[in-house]
Structures are given as C-alpha cells and as structure tokens.
Amino acid sequence: MYERFTDRARKVMQLANQEAQRFNHEYIGTEHILLGLVKDGSGVAAKVLKNLGVELRKVRREVEKVVQSGPDYVPMGKLPQTPRAKKVVEYALEESRKLNHSYVGTEHLLLGLIREQEGVAAQILINLGLTLDELHRQVLNVLGQDTAGVSRSSLNFDLPDPDLPEVRYFNAEITRLTREKEAAVDGQDFDLAAGLRDQADKLQKMRKQFIAKWWKDVGPIPDLPALQELDAAIQRVTQEKMAVVARCDSEIERLKAERERIITEWGQKKLGRGNLTGEPGA
What we know:
With 282 residues, the protein is mainly alpha-helical. The chain has two domains: 7-156, Double Clp-N motif; 165-218. It has helices at residues 7-22, 30-40, 44-51, 56-66, 83-98, 106-115, 120-127, 132-142, 152-156, 165-186, 190-218, 225-271. The longest helix has 47 residues, at 225-271. It is globular.
C-alpha cells in the first residue's frame, strides 16, 4: 500500500508514530497523522496548513483537549493504526488516482484527512476555525487544480449514485459476478474466479466513469438553502458525536489503566510486595 508514497509522505507517517508515542497512545489515529503533516514543515500539506495559520503547538493543544494521554508505558516500535487512520490512507490513494498522480504525497494524506470527516483530525481542524471545504480548495489550488464553480456541498460530501437504469444494471451485474466468483473460489476453480474478478473490476470501472460523466454533464450542485441547512446540521451532529467519542475513549483509557494497576498489584503481592526482580518472594 505504501509503495507509491513519496519519501516525505512516509516521513509523515513516521512522525505520526512518534506523536502517538509522545501522547503515550497505543495506536496511530487521524490526529497523529495531522500532527505528522504539520511537524513535517515543508511538504505541500504543511505549506497549506501554515498558510491557514495551523501551527504544531495549536494542533497539539487541541489534541490534548479532545484525547487524553495514555498510560505511562507505551510499546516502542511501529504502532497499529485505528480503522479511521487506515481509511485516511485509503482515501489518500483514491485522491491520488482521481488527480491522475503516480505518487501519494502529503497533499493526498491531507485530502484523506478531510474526507474522513468523523475522525479526530477533522474535528480539530474545525475547532481551529477552519472549514473543510475551504481547506480542500486550498489544497487543490496549490496543486493547480481548477476549483471554479465547485460548491461547498459537492466538496464536503461524495456525490450520491444517481438512481438510473444504467447504474442499476451495473450494480446487478457486479453483484452477480461477485457471487459467481465466490462460488468458483469455494469450488477451487481459481482460474474461473480470476476471470470473473477481472470482469467485475472492469464493470466497476465503467460504472465509476459513467457516474462521473453523468455528474459532469449535470454540472455543479448549487448551494441551495436546504442543502446549506443540512450541511450545517450534519457538521453540528458530527461535532457532538466526536465529543461523545472522545469522552468514551478517555473513559476506556482510564479503565484500562485501572485494570493494569490491579494486575500489577496482584503480581507484586504474589511475588512479594516491592519485589520487581522476578525472583520468588520469601
């Protein structure tokens, strides 16, 4: 997955790992990737964030508000990514393909963070007074992409699949081929399964191209008052959800720490209180 990453993008992921360890976290979350992008300092994403007034100390302060530090001990080495962090990496790959780039850079990671709107990083950017659509535009402007006529609604949310006969046909055929492929795998006919997979992939590509062309022909979605109200409501509920998630995460960490404390005390009593050498107590 990381073979297309630039050296700087890989460095950002290493910095994200370091930031997670700095907070004594046992995982890499979207907030750590954001910290890595800002800390990098000289990539495309760092320049965009700097131009918008996003500084490392500000981001760290917001992370401290939203997510509490972990226990005193954190395993060294490469930490696992949360599901949302993994999604950000997947989105970064998609953004690179959409822009017809042969690489994944820091700008694509930032676009991935913007798309994962329920992640802690998106919440932090909003708390810093940024709007995700403006941030998206800034990235595309730096990359020389035309953003004229693109509405806030179309930037913030993936466009829905139109309910058209052609789309329903693609959906039905892809489902059929997927089921036949799974049956072929169960029957250990791997050559047939590979052929069916290729057919399904081809149809999936044709489906995406059809939908993209349809929306291009339709033109940009206007900022209708009803859409603006829905966008604001979705952002508000997302912020409320993130606050609840942050509180739950903090409580989980507290409970884990309490569990570790009880286990440690039990172990010390078994070996002899204060005996940390591993030798049997008297």
